[in-house]
Amino acid sequence: MPILHSIIHRIAKASGEQPATLHPAPAEPAVSDSLEDLLAGFNDAYHAKPKAWGHFKLEQDVEETQELRFPRELASYLDGHSDFIAFTRGVAQRIAELLDAHLSISGHLLFVDYQHGDTRYLSLALLHHREGYAIDTEHSVVPSAQLNLTQMSLAARINLSQWRSDSPSRQYLSWTRDRGGKKLAEGFAELLGATEGVDATGETRTLLKAFSDYVEQEDFAEEQSREKTDVLLDYANEQARSGEPMTLEALSELLDEQQPKAFFDHIRNADYGLSPEIPPDKRTLSQFRRFTGRSNGVSISFDSHLLGSSIEYDETQDRLIIKKVPNGLREQLKERQG
Predict the structure, then answer these.
(1) Residue 216 zone, left/alpha/beta (φ > 0; ψ -120 to 50; rest)
(2) Per-residue pLDDT averaged across 28-32, rounded?
């Protein structure tokens, strides 16, 4: 991931009523293996965080022009009208003021403009520290402050290539949405001038429902159903690890190489209302699995989310109630009774 520009400012917040103070870096650090490793570690930690996905607000949708300040300054930097250091200092000062209103915490504010493949990104994050230990040259244990990438109060990533393209999507921007700091997250989104363009949790849930309907409609054999479920989850989790959205057309091609448009057409024909690109929600994906069991000549397998809708479990009498019998099984039962 070639780093084009980077800088690390410091925000200090003393205890008590003292305001947060910005200590700007005088210059960009030299690109090094450590800096690249930090960027890779940040990306891994960021992709695992609960996030909102969206885009910058449009001029006709804002009441206060202040909400357009960040994207305008970012565009000015990208167009060469301002330098990276000046751009990041202005943003850092506003973040310091935001923290002052919501958190009594210090940290380093990282900005990185980098290239990944053909795509250019800008990432920013408030990095916190934790106390750790190291071994010095005398082989003694000494205290050592370490960056804590798992604690990430504020972070965002902008797909600059997509934003500046001729037909930008509505989800080129993502930012952390800390469940424990709603006001802070809302203030951060306002500072960025961001608005949500897609509900990652809802869209992922709907996609999984569409997939289960598709498997049931096509009446795949159990082994085929399991294989396709594995393909979907492998693709979704890989996209989640890389911080990229799932695309319906790509997923459809992976699910059936012989009929690459089959699943895509199923979604469109049934009108699930899904976006062409869906940010994968890891929590929802982790809950999507199959219940399986075999005993005394009976083999049962079904997707977990069907429990409570198409399938019910009566714990008092220890029985499963199947409300909708698969087509193939229904025909076999009719033939047997006939």
Answers:
(1) alpha
(2) 93
- Express as a percent the part of the chain with pLDDT over 70: 94
Asked whether residue 60 falls in the same domain as residue 81, the answer is yes
**Domains of the chain: total:** 3
Answer whether residue 83 shows pLDDT above 90.
Answer: yes
63 contacts: CB under 8 Å, gap ≥ 6 = none
Are 30 and 174 contained in the same domain?
yes
Tell me the residue range of the domain where 297 lies. Answer: 290-337
Same domain? 207 vs 193: no
Using an 8 Å Cβ cutoff, are 171 and 198 in contact?
A: yes
In a shared domain, residues 248 and 301: no
Distance CA 192, CA 122 (A): 13
Q: Clarify whether residues 157 and 231 are in a common domain.
A: no
- Token pair 């569409």 is at which residue? 210
CA dihedral 73, 79, 80, 84 (to 10 degrees): 40
Label residue 167 by pLDDT band (50, 70, 90): confident
Residue 324: how many CB atoms within 10 A of its CB? 11
Angle between helices 69-78 and 84-102 (to 10 degrees): 160
